[in-house]
Structures are given as structure tokens and as C-alpha cells.
Amino acid sequence: MSFATLQQRTNAAVMAKLSDAATLDSVAAAGKFMDESAMALNGIYGEKPIFELDGIDGVDYRGKTLVVGTKSYIVRECKPNNRSQSTMLTLEQA
């Protein structure tokens, strides 16, 4: 098994354990949801909720609906995060 294959399997296993269950435009989405209280603990103030979508696919998700648990959000901003190979979605409660 190559290092790249091992890394890919490890990343997939970690994301499966740490991901928040969500749907983006009615399709299952893997990623991490961060609300205002979590961001305040990390020293980020005055921000809207953020969903860090696993992977960078180049799709513009602005205006799409993201559902996390029982809450719905509208994607207001969508930016790739090359450092973590993810897409940062800035959200607004629907």
C-alpha cells in the first residue's frame, strides 16, 4: 500500500468520525459545522456560522440551502481553503 493510499484512507476515516451530518441542496455533505458559540471559544468574534465542506470542487454554493440537524442555513459566501483542502461556506440562518 502506498503512502498516498494510506493517507487517503486515514483522512476519510477521520472525516467520518468528526463530520457533522448535513445536507447541501438536498445532497449529503461531509464537513464541520461551527456556530457562533464555538467560534467565540476559538477567539473569532462577530462572524456568522461556518460550514467547512470537505474538499474543493470549484462549485459556487452561494444561495444554496444547508441543513445541519434541524436548522436550515443559506450559503452567503463560498471560498476554497487550499491549506486544509476544504471549502469554507459562510452561512446565514434561513
Topology:
Blueprint: H1 3-18, E1 22-24, E2 27-29, E3 31-34, H2 36-41, E4 50-54, E5 65-68, E6 71-81, E7 86-93
Antiparallel strand pairs: 1-2, 1-5, 3-4, 4-7, 5-6, 6-7
Features:
single chain, 94 residues, alpha+beta, Thrombin, subunit H, 2 helices
- Given this structure, which CATH class is correct? Mainly Beta
Poorly predicted runs are none
CATH topology: Thrombin, subunit H
Query: What name goes with the CATH superfamily?
Result: Phage tail proteins (gpFII-like)
Give a verbal description of the structure.
With 94 residues, the chain is an alpha+beta fold. It contains 2 helices and 7 strands. β1 (22-24) and β2 form a beta hairpin. The protein is globular and about 45 Å long. The termini are far apart. The mean pLDDT is 83.
Summarize it.
This protein has 94 residues and is an alpha+beta fold. It has helices at 3-18, 36-41; strands at 22-24, 27-29, 31-34, 50-54, 65-68, 71-81, 86-93.
